[in-house]
Structure formats: C-alpha cells, structure tokens
C-alpha cells in the first residue's frame, strides 16, 4: 500500500493521541491536524481551520494543504460529525473515519437514542422524552424512582443533572425547557431512572456489522480525590477495567452491541467509526447510559497505546469498508492517564502560563497535549482547563499509574493540579483479591 496522507480533525487530547498513534504507522505520509494545539504542532503540521468549519475542512481535505487531497480524514470530536462533515467528504470521494450525520444523531440527540434503545429492546434506564415542562413535572412526581435529567442535544458533556430530590428534578427540567439552561440543546429533555451500579466505557471500532471491542476503560469525572467536587470532562482514566468482567462483556456483546449494530443497519445507517457505549453495571446486568459517536476523552489516550496493530491501517480499513476485526491485536498490558489541569478548572481557569515539560524520550509514557498553544517565541502555554494528559504504560495497573504519576510530577506551570487517586477503585479490588 502507498503512503497515506491523513487529516485529523480536532484540537484536544483525544486528537493528540490519535496523531501519535497514526504517526507510528509505516503507512503514514503527510500528517496534518486542524486546528491542532501547541503539543500536536510538535508532532505534525497543523492548520488553523476550526473543527466546526465544515466548508473549511472540506476545502482543506480536497487541497491537502497544498499537497493534493488527503487519503483519509479522521474526525475526533462529535460536533463536526453531527454537522455532516463525513457526508460532505464522502460525497467527494474522500474516505472518513467517523459516522455520517444519520449515525452521529445517536449522540446529537439523546431523545433519538432513548427511542432507538426502546425500539430494539436494548437494556437501558426507564425514561421518557419531553418538550413540555408540565408533562415532565407530572412524570417526575409520579415516577417510582429517583430520576436523572438530560438535555437531548449536544451540551459539551455538561447537559446532565443528577438531582437530590423530586423538587430539584422539576427545577432542572424547567430550567432546560423554559429558561434555556442549555440553549437549543435543552429544548427537548430525557427524564430517566437513576441507575445504581458502577460505570465503564466500552469503545467499539465499527464498520457496519463488523466490530472490534477495545479494552474496557473507566474514567474519573469528579475534580477531587475520592470522587468529590463538581464534574469535569475527565480527570484521568485507565484500561482495561476489571469491573467489566468477561461475563459482563459477554452480556454487552449479546444484549447491547449486536442488537445496536443490527438496529443501525435496519435504520439504513452505514456506520463507520467509533461507537462509544457508556454502560452501568447494575444488579440486572449491563445497561446503556449513553452512546457517543467518537472516542472518549481521556479514554482515547489510554486505548491508543494498547493497540499493538497498525492504527492507521485499522482506521483506513474502516473508512473504506474493508475492515477485518481478526487483524486487530491488543496489548495484554495496562495504560493509565493523569490529567494535569489549570487553576480554577472546572470553573473559570487561568490561561497563558508557560509550561515546562518533562525532558527525555519515553517508551512507557506519553505526554498528550489537550489545552495548550504555542507562543510566537516558541514557548508552550496553557490554553484550556484540562491542559495535559500524562499516560503511563505497564504490565500491571500499578506500574502504568506509577509511570503516569512520575510524568505528572515533572510538569511545571503556575496553578497546575491533578488528582492523586486515579484507578483507586481498581486498586481496591485488586487488594481485596490478594
């Protein structure tokens, strides 16, 4: 196969992990990321086209940034997919890793997902969709269970409210439907049962009915140790997560994955890309919490290093419909990420502080940039709440965490902080098994 020119769309840690994995492939030719960030610019060319500028991205994909059209576009975030980027590119004959708009609706509309799950008998929380606040209140008051309120549309991972009681639930529903709490994303809501159990993330690489299930992962959403404080975009993650046992994964395949892919086919959706299934492991077995149509962030950063086979070959095969799941090889080791954040995150946070990065070439560690930018004089500066992801690898989880934390401790910028207990549930389980 000839060298492949690849365009990666996005600017965060997920996209930097994809760039690093693709760059390792002997098939990788010209590699560009749009718009990228300060760290991605150290690994490949970047181009200042927003991930939401569909005409700009299509033009870039066709021009190849001056070097001819790209062989493959890998779309990292969900928004461009929901805006139809994959459709536009495929109509021009450019292969894309990422679903078309009719597949991206699984994430873009929680109401659609809820109806899809019901239609195909896929286990999930009991719930209903509402556009009328009085009907939502009636349902909440009568529900024989605690509820969760979800904005149906994309809300940058912030559209879920977990109320303490019925009054708070009604208030949240009214805030979304009547007061525009999440703008247009909250004009329709999902009110559903609050499930009890432990969550895990299941990432699938999908091409029609063919798929590979990557190692189950678990992330940490709360900002503080012990899962205290407000929710964030993710303070760390690890894989594989043993809470998703072989028995759980068997049920996930039989009850969730295969009915979902069959349902997508029946709906006329040619799905090519990542399907992220957030599951709750309940006393009645695994149930779907949510679908996402892209790799999770920070989960992507621990999954990419665990794929032993050629990542670029895999993504290109999926994009072109020539995907062989049997050729995907997964490491037997562990990966963990510790996210280093800016002071104030997840509230108003500092920007523009100079970052002093660890020195050296690490074989068992990855430095992944998320919220960074380059200054005119070549310095790397903070430019987001989640600034860096420090990824450690190892034969055991403890070893992977040790490598990740050793890197995190070497990062220096004013106000930097990170959680000290990533993977604590898994470590506790391991200690109980000994």
Textual characterization of the structure:
The structure is a single chain. The mean pLDDT is 94. The protein contains 14 helices and 22 strands. The termini are far apart. The longest helix has 21 residues, at 246-266. 31% of the residues lie in helices and 26% in strands. The strands form six sheets. The protein has a five-stranded parallel beta sheet with strand order 3-2-1-4-5. The chain has helices spanning 13-23, 40-43, 54-63, 78-82, 85-91, 101-108, 110-119, 133-142, 166-177, 246-266, 299-303, 311-319, 397-410, 424-433; strands spanning 4-10, 28-35, 45-46, 72-75, 96-97, 127-130, 147-151, 160-161, 189-193, 198-207, 210-213, 218-219, 222-224, 228-231, 236-239, 272-282, 285-292, 334-341, 365-369, 372-374, 380-382, 386-394. Helix 6 packs across helix 7 (110-119) and helix 8 packs antiparallel against helix 9. By secondary structure, it is an alpha+beta fold.
């Amino acid at each position: 196969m000839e060298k492949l020119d690849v365009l990666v769309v996005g600017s965060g840690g997920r996209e930097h992990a994809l760039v690093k994995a693709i760059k390792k492939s002997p098939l990788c030719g010209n590699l560009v990321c749009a718009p990228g960030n300060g760290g991605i610019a150290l690994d490949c060319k970047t181009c200042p086209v927003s991930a939401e500028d569909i005409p700009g991205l299509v033009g870039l994909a066709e021009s190849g940034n001056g070097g001819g059209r790209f062989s493959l576009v890998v779309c990292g975030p969900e928004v461009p997919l929901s805006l139809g980027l994959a459709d536009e590119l495929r109509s021009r004959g450019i292969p894309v890793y990422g679903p078309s708009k009719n597949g991206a609706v699984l994430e873009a509309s929680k109401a659609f997902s809820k109806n899809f799950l019901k239609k195909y008998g896929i286990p999930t929380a009991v719930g209903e969709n509402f556009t009328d606040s009085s009907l939502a209140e009636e349902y909440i008051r009568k529900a024989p269970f605690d509820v969760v309120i979800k904005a149906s549309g994309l809300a940058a991972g912030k559209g879920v409210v977990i109320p303490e009681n019925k009054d708070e639930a009604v208030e949240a529903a009214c805030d979304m439907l009547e007061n525009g709490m999440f703008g247009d994303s909250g004009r329709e809501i999902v009110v559903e049962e609050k499930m009890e159990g432990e969550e895990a993330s299941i990432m699938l690489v999908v091409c029609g009915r063919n798929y590979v299930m990557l190692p189950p992962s678990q992330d940490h959403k709360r900002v503080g140790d012990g899962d205290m404080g407000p929710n964030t975009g993710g303070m760390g993650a690890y894989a594989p997560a043993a809470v998703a046992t072989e028995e759980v994964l068997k049920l996930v395949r039989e009850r969730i994955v295969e009915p979902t892919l069959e349902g997508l086919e029946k709906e006329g959706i040619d799905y090519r890309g990542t399907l992220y299934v957030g599951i709750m492991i309940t006393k009645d077995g695994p149930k779907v919490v949510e679908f996402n149509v892209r790799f999770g962030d920070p989960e992507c950063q621990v999954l990419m290093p665990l794929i032993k086979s050629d990542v670029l070959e895999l993504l290109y095969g999926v994009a072109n419909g020539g995907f062989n799941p049997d050729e995907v090889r997964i490491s037997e080791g562990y990966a963990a990420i510790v996210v280093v954040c800016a002071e104030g995150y997840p509230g108003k946070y500092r920007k523009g502080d100079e970052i002093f990065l660890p020195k050296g070439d690490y074989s068992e560690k990855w430095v992944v940039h998320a919220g960074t930018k380059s200054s005119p004089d070549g310095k790397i500066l903070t430019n987001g709440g989640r600034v860096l992801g420090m990824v450690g690898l190892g034969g055991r989880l403890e070893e992977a965490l040790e490598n990740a934390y050793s890197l995190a401790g070497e990062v220096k910028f004013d106000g930097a902080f990170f959680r000290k207990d990533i993977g604590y549930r898994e470590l506790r389980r391991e200690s109980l098994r000994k």
